[in-house]
Amino acid sequence: MIRTLAKEIKEYKAASIATPFCMILEVLMEMVIPFLMASIIDDGVEAGNLSHIYRVGIIMIGAALTGLIAGLAGGKLGAHASAGVAKNLRNAMFHNIQSFSFSNIDKFSTAGLVTRLTTDVTNVQNAYQMLLRMFTRAPASLVCAMVMAFSINARLSTIYLIAVILLGTALFFLMRHATRYFQQAFPKYDDMNASVQENVSAIRVVKAYVREKEETIRFRKTSQNIYKIFLKAECNLVYNAPLMQFTVYGCILLISWLGARMIVYDSLTTGELMSLLTYCMNILSSLMMLSMVFVMVSMSSASVRRIVEILNETSDLQNPEHPVMDVPDGSIVFDHVDFAYKKGSGEPVLKDVCLNIRSGETIGIIGGTGSAKTSLVNLVSRLYDVTAGEVKVGGRNVKEYDMEVLRNQVAVVLQKNVLFSGTILENLRWGNAQATEEECREACRLACADEFIERFPKGYETYIEQGGSNVSGGQKQRLCIARALLKKPKILILDDSTSAVDTATDAKIRRAFLEEIPETTKLIIAQRVSSVQDADRIIVMEEGRIDGFGTHEELLAGNRIYREVYESQTRGGGDFDEKAGEQ
């Protein structure tokens, strides 16, 4: 775990090493000052030696300035190192997340990933800065103060040693008890962030169903859980301050009483007593600093484990040692394919699937909810790996291809359409960053998106809000189809991607595909028979198996499921806008 985090220090090693040295120098200067002060009082003030006072005073000013500069440098370098490590951690996590397969992403919730990139990294950043500064300063100050105190008077300094042992033991048990609660708290942040994310992303549904009150109550419960855990942790830590104060004042009283007696008997000077009292505050404030470091480290330990989980997670999908860098055509073969989302557990989602699709064919895929239509097409672009059997594209197993090359030749319009903040042109160029405006317009024409884009005042420069909230569902689908077409793929997969458009527009899109991209293999998942009945062949799926595969006429004649779906959709005059589609 430490080795994983250490990799992210990288260019901040120098600052990370220099910070402790600066803090130690600051501590040394602070430890010298009480010693010099005792000299001024004993050898200067009481002896009436003004030149000694000036000489030692100048040395004290120099020591104070050196300590100030060292402290400022340590603070700046520590902030630079901790902020840099936090930046590297976020970059490393985000980079690794980008390499995850769908099965990797399924292990972590979206809210959990966001919490790890924000709250958890901030905790580690704060803890790292405290380790560089306070964790160096506090022990150094403690040791130096002890040495200086014992060099002045070993008998009185024994009080410090006893106080440190007792206080350190008490703080250890307090921290240990509190740590358990901090470890429970951070997973609760995932739940809270998930609640916020879900509520904000579905705010229209919340308002439409007047569920604001219920959502507020749900969030309050999540927030209350975090409050209760932190309250328990803080209730343990609340004893820290009074225990520290009791020890400090107890030491001051004992040293003052015993020191005064020793001054009377001439076994201690007034300056030495003042130095001992100063070292008393240094020793005990060092313990207070250490306790703060332990609290922060306790809080961040859970965060460190969660961050390392992401950094150590490796993608289930890896490129072969010598990948194939060219996809010759869009032919697809499923050879006795089984697939399960979790290997070795539960029933497979796809069972013994055998298909042979020729390059350039238009294949419709139809089936009930949960029949594994989406799972089938996800295997083509290797978003998941098969559990058994083989999937071949262009005559070769998809595992032989470089994944980037394969996915550039397989354009997928997913069931859930996603647009990003930016202009329409910027969204379209996700398909091809070098696409000209003319190529973008042509793709939009094929997807029947040009008709509504041209009605916008700014046309293709129209700004799309986050998540595409300022365009309709059908408009969003057509923009996503246009984006996929800009890749000029050998295989185009439409996963129920025209469900929000009317059948007339659906028919236009299918006609454009047939005429303009005849060499591209097209897999069209649909719920409407009208969307697939003109396909070269149609796959009928039922509970993860191929129930039928043939033309519209062949399936009507020989497949019960397809015939029942067709009759249920055409009974009573067909789709609601069928006449519009015929015009």
Textual characterization of the structure:
Helix content is 63%, strand content 10%. The chain has 583 residues and is α/β, with parallel strands linked by helices. The strands form 3 sheets. It has a 6-stranded mixed sheet. Strands 2-1-4-5 form a 4-stranded antiparallel sheet, with no helix packed on it. Strand 11 (537-542) and strand 12 (545-550) form a beta hairpin. Mean pLDDT is 83; it is low at 573-583.
Q: Which helices and strands, and how do they pair?
A:
Elements: H1 2-6, H2 13-45, H3 50-99, H4 102-107, H5 110-132, H6 134-152, H7 154-201, H8 203-208, H9 212-237, H10 240-264, H11 270-312, E1 332-339, E2 350-357, E3 362-367, H12 373-378, E4 388-393, E5 396-397, H13 403-409, E6 410-413, E7 422-423, H14 424-428, H15 437-446, H16 450-453, E8 463-464, H17 473-485, E9 491-495, H18 503-516, E10 521-525, E11 537-542, E12 545-550, H19 552-558, H20 560-570, H21 578-582
Parallel strand pairs: 3-10, 3-11, 6-9, 9-10
Antiparallel strand pairs: 1-2, 1-4, 4-5, 7-8, 11-12
Helix pairs in contact: 2-3, 2-6, 2-11, 3-5, 5-6, 5-7, 5-11, 6-7, 6-11, 7-9, 7-10, 7-11, 10-11, 15-17, 19-20
Assembly context of the chains? single chain
Number of strands: 12
Poorly predicted runs are 573-583
- Proportion of beta-strand residues: 5-15%
Average residue pLDDT:
83
**Whole-Å distance between the termini?**
66 Å
Q: What Rg, in angstroms, do the CA atoms define? A: 36 Å
Sheet having the most strands: 6 strands, mixed
Shape: elongated
Question: What structural class do the secondary elements suggest?
Answer: alpha/beta
Assign a percent range to the helix content. Answer: 55-70%
Number of helices: 21
Strand order of the biggest β-sheet: 6-9-10-3-11-12
